[in-house]
């Protein structure tokens, strides 16, 4: 590394306790998402809050992990560090369960699409502090956000305080994924294994849905996939395809396997040709090592990756997402369950719209036909929560019983198509409910 950058690096190197002391009361903090939450710095900040040394902190973020859950997001600290979630996961659901049991309000939730998150954080909320894990600095003075470029990279360009935890296990990613030492307030060195996600067990329904979806993916298509057993099943069924591309919100092991096998070469993409593009990555140590200094993969901010206009510039985009329930008009609730926020809209609508405007694009939303161990239908007359993807945007719905192509269909035709892919035990009931809605 150049001596000028090495000297600047040393001047900003502090302990985790010293870094946490730089966060003033009243700060609006953004923490890195998922894999990039900084354990040592968060532990020190939680200790400050516990000791009453800091208060009125507001923490804006997506996708917390156990790192945040065991430190800055501990419920007993919530009066000093208030979490504001843009996307709920297991940590938030556990906190909500505790709050409901104690008769307290649910955790604060801020609805927005993932692609608009940088705009909300920078221009609307005006967050002033970023805390995230990054790769070691390169010879030109740049740190890479590695697994979590998403909103961290854009925020790093505007935040008053940029506090970074350097972990040699964080991959150095190509793309627009970096922040320069000159923009950094403080550096903490802390080596620890990155968080890994467990592998998912692929069930019978997942394989059936995966095979149906795979039938809509052809040589040269450009893929977006989510997380879970279903995307894993789809990727596993694509081993005989050629010249696939990747432009995805999330990079996951299934897509990595297709890249390693040569199924993905990105040769037919019109944007970022020859490169697999992602906003964040989560999965296995093998995935993180694959991303490190890999010239065939690029991390970019989520307001670029999830921009429907950017997505649509590639032809043959196939977007695959999951949902919780679909009503008889085709609208999807993919984020609300049992009267509470379960996850969030994430990038689902971003990619649905991007695929819809892509030449020969296909947007696929998939789900098991039933929930609650087979006692409830996921095809419903009316949604029980907010609309994540409006009926105007939905293209194709897939369950293990088949697919319903809703593009160009009337409301009546949609209802019939959706009932045909519901679980057989609920079809008669759904027909009666469709008649009550004057759809049949």
TrEMBL record:
GO molecular function, one term: acetate CoA-transferase activity
Stated name of the protein: Itaconate CoA-transferase
Residues annotated as domain Acetyl-CoA hydrolase/transferase C-terminal: 283-434
Domain Acetyl-CoA hydrolase/transferase N-terminal, residue spans: 8-194
Stored Pfam families: AcetylCoA_hyd_C, AcetylCoA_hydro
Family affiliation: Belongs to the acetyl-CoA hydrolase/transferase family.
Keyword hit for rRNA-binding: no
Keyword flag GTP-binding: no
Keywords, in A-Z order: Transferase
GO terms of biological process kind: acetate metabolic process
């Amino acid at each position: 590394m150049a001596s000028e950058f090495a000297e600047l690096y040393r001047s900003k190197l502090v302990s985790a306790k010293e870094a946490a002391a730089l966060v003033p009361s009243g700060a609006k903090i953004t923490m890195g998402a998922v894999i990039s939450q900084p354990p040592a710095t968060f532990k020190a900040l939680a200790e400050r809050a516990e000791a009453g040394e800091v208060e009125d902190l507001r923490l804006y973020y997506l996708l917390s992990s156990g790192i945040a859950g065991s430190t800055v997001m501990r419920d007993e600290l919530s009066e000093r560090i208030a979490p504001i979630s843009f996307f709920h996961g297991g940590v938030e659901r556990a906190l909500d369960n505790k709050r409901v049991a104690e008769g307290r309000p649910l955790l604060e939730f801020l609805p927005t699409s993932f692609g608009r998150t940088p705009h909300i954080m920078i221009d609307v909320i005006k967050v002033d502090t970023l805390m995230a894990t990054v790769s070691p600095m390169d010879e030109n003075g740049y740190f890479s956000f590695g697994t979590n470029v998403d909103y961290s990279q854009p925020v790093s360009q505007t935040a008053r305080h940029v506090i970074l935890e350097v972990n040699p296990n964080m991959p150095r990613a190509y793309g627009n994924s970096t922040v320069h030492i000159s923009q950094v307030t403080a550096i903490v060195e802390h080596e620890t294994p990155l968080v890994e996600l467990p592998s998912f067990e692929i069930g019978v329904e997942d394989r059936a849905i995966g095979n149906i979806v795979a039938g809509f993916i052809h040589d040269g298509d450009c893929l977006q996939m989510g997380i879970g057993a279903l995307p894993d099943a789809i990727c596993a069924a694509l081993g005989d395809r050629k010249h696939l591309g990747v432009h995805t919100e999330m990079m996951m092991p299934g897509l990595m396997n297709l890249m390693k096998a040569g199924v993905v070469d990105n040769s037919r993409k019109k944007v970022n040709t020859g490169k697999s593009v992602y906003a964040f990555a989560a999965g296995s140590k093998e995935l993180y090592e694959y991303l490190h200094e890999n010239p065939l993969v690029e991390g970019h901010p989520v307001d670029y990756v999830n921009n429907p206009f950017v997505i649509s510039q590639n032809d043959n985009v196939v977007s695959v997402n999951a949902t919780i329930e679909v009503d008889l008009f085709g609208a999807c609730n993919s984020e609300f369950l049992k009267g509470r926020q379960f996850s969030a809209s994430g990038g689902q609508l971003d990619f649905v719209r991007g695929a819809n405007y892509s030449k020969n694009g296909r947007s696929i939303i998939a789900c098991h036909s039933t929930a609650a161990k087979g006692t409830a239908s996921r095809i419903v007359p009316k949604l029980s929560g907010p609309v994540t993807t409006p009926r105007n945007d939905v293209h194709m719905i897939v369950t293990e019983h088949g697919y319903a192509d809703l593009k160009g269909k009337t409301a009546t035709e949609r209802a019939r198509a959706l009932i045909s892919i519901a679980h057989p035990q609920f079809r008669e009931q759904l027909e009666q409910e469709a008649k009550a809605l004057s759809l049949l």
